[in-house]
Amino acid sequence: MKIIKLLLICILLCTYINVEAQIAKIGIGAGGGTIKGNSASVGALCGILFADTDILFPDYINIRGGFLFSRKAEYFLPENRTGRYYPFIKSFFIKAVTEQNLYGISYIEEGIGIAAINDRTFSDVDYWEPGITFGINAGIKPTRHSRFSIGIDYGLGLTRTNATYYSLLLSYAYQF
Question: Which domain of life is it from (predicted)?
């Protein structure tokens, strides 16, 4: 039995696996919007990190994976925070994103996908729920590798608290 395990480990270590995935683009963004769970919407500031890969689909569709964090805007203002709770939502997402080039250096891209949304809108609420996410961006490509865009990102949880976020984001992406 030990010989079989050792043999399998050697085979796995010595095998060359060619993965067809390549990172096509990485990006970061910030902006404002709203968040809500089982509550009224509150104004929020948000940030996003993402990476696009060229995998499984034709050239005109990329898979984007990323993380979005959105927290009540008052959290970022200087004040006495004793006994205060500032709601927030976290989201990990995977989207199928497509892009259309417009005139010259401008473009639009849109995406749809699935998300895992963490609702923390109340201090006693900590639910992870499956959801869907949509997004649309318009931007410019000043160089071959740089992209600046403004866009809207929307996420909706489908169970429990139906956590929702809506964000207007300015973002920068580096294309490889």
Answer: Bacteria
Question: Would you kindly state where each structural domain of the chain is located, as residue ranges?
Answer: 21-175
Q: Which CATH number fits domain 21-175: 3.90.180.10, 2.40.160.20, 2.40.50.200, 3.40.1190.20?
A: 2.40.160.20
Can you tell me the distance from the alpha carbon of 170 to that of 48, in angstroms, rounded to the nearest whole number?
10
Angle at the Cα of 135 from the Cα atoms of 161 and 48, rounded to 5 degrees: 75
pTM for this predicted structure: 0.82
C-alpha to C-alpha distance for 93 and 132, rounded to whole angstroms: 8
**Strand-pair partners of 156:** 132, 164
Token pair recorded at residue 101: 């080039």
CA-only gyration radius of the chain, Å: 20
pLDDT digits 0-9 by tens, 3-45: 666 656 656 555 544 445 588 899 999 999 999 988 889 999 9
Between CA 174 and CA 107, with CA 140 as vertex, the angle to 5 degrees is 105
